Amino acid sequence: MNRRPVFLITVLCFGFAFFYIPILSMIVYSFNASRLATVWGGFSTKWYVSLFSNKQVIAALLLSLKIAVVSATFATILGTMAGIVLARFTRFRGRLLFSGLVTAPLVMPEVITGISSLIFFIMMADWIGWPGARGFTTITLAHITFSMVFVTTIIQARMVQSDRAIEEAAMDLGSRPWQVMLDVTLPTIFPAILSGWLLAFTISLDDVVITSFTTGPGSTTLPLLIWSKVKLGVTPDINALATLMVLVVGLGVVPAGVLMMRSEKRRLADSRLAYRTND
Amino acid sequence: MGRISQWFDRRGFAAMLIGLPYLWLLALFLLPFLIVVAMSLATKTPTAPPFSFGGDHPWVNGQAYVRVLTDGLYLRAFLTSVGNAGVAMMLCLLLGYPMALGLTRVSKSWRNILLMLVILPFWTSFLLRVYAWMGLMGKNSWFNGLLTDGWNLLVPMDWAVKSIPMMNSNFAVVLVMVYTYLPFMILPLYASLERLDPVLDEAAMDLGSRPWQVFRDVTLPQSVPGIIAGGMLVFIPAAGELVIPSLVGDASSPMIGRLISDEFSSARDWPMASAVAVVLLVLMVGPTMLYSHYQARAEGTK
Hints:
The complex is a heterodimer. Chain A is mostly helical. Chain A is built from 12 helices and no strands. Chain A starts with 5 loop residues before the first helix and ends with a helix. In chain B, strands 1-2 form a two-stranded antiparallel sheet. Chain B contains 13 helices and 2 strands, in the order αββαααααααααααα. Chain B has one domain: MetI-like (MetI-like fold).
């Protein structure tokens, strides 16, 4: 009965063209010799050269990476704890508020999160004298807060699927709660923790709005630098930068995603096999 | 020592697991938000920080809220935001639904590749995806030239234009919103369409339904949770968007996110910015509840 869904395939093709033509156009124009970013003036790689010799760009990139690594690591720790709590502790005082606190940052408009963080930091500096100057510390704190809830949703979804009986068995065999966590729970959800870290890392690396509110003089992350340049219009060196970032994503994230998908599939197949032999 | 470790096993470990993230979110999310709510009731002053409680107004000052509700500027900004986000949501649905349905009809191996291609833009910078469209929509770009030629070919000579003014308009905002938020629509729709039983389609076919009737009577009704979840997932962030309207939007009719940011940074009117933020959040409660109600159903966890 399956006729070829011509209409659907056509829309799919159109949709993917819509997704990728702007990006391809940007890549092509990054090799444009002309100073006018949208008029083709021959092939050149000079914007890449000027990009690599731009100290500002390199410094901003390094700051962004530093913030992303630190904030993703803390966000993963806190987010994993929260995910485990939500999946395993069904009753404790304040659970309703806790699950609300974990959901709210997901839907909170970034402008509001940004402004409330900034006002908070200013008030804290006023009341207790900390944080003194805004910059690395304040940006990182804000990033941890709004990226940890994304980790939590990943971990929670994974924990709900995983078999609780194994943890209970470990308990019965005399493991102490923290041993169960280290020996059973964390290893089984490790792929989820890894993808949580990766997500928190990219969220932090990509953020403009919250960073623009919580930054201080001298702390310019890469998105902030791009933001300030892009506001003035389209420039060829941003095209080059964008192309490099797309390349890094293509070379880094895609294989990581494929590997993760494979390991997840293998794990599923293994567990299915295990159940079948038990039958 | 033994007693401490016993206590730790029985109560302390769980308390630590709950307490750390709980305290973190209380201190760095809830407290800042409560400060904003309090700030919305303060009075603007020329001091630093630029607000105070008391003075002419006994403790709380509802002035900011009165202005949000009466000043046309804020009302227009809310309408622009809801309008742009609403149109973007509808367009995402119109384009995303057939795409999601198409994804369920291609072979397994193709499906994984195509799904990867839907998710891939997520991993590239949001800012750069907006920027890519700035390049396409500008006056001298090949894309604008193509559209201009098409336009000039179709309309009478008198209406011919040198280039189509796309940048800095609500059209540009909606277009870029559709571009950046389309995956948010496709993924929940795909999740709910993928679970549908093809046997139902075949049954309807056997009973004499034509393909579009099968779609209308069988597929569409079952995918309503996915439609609502995806729609809200586009609508909520789009309504509060700051980056897109700042880069490609019309400055004379700002969206609410831009207004909040301007009130805060340029006008230095913190109470006003806070009040607008609180009103925006209150408006988002409805869509958020809709989303959380249908999201679980769309993913089939319930």
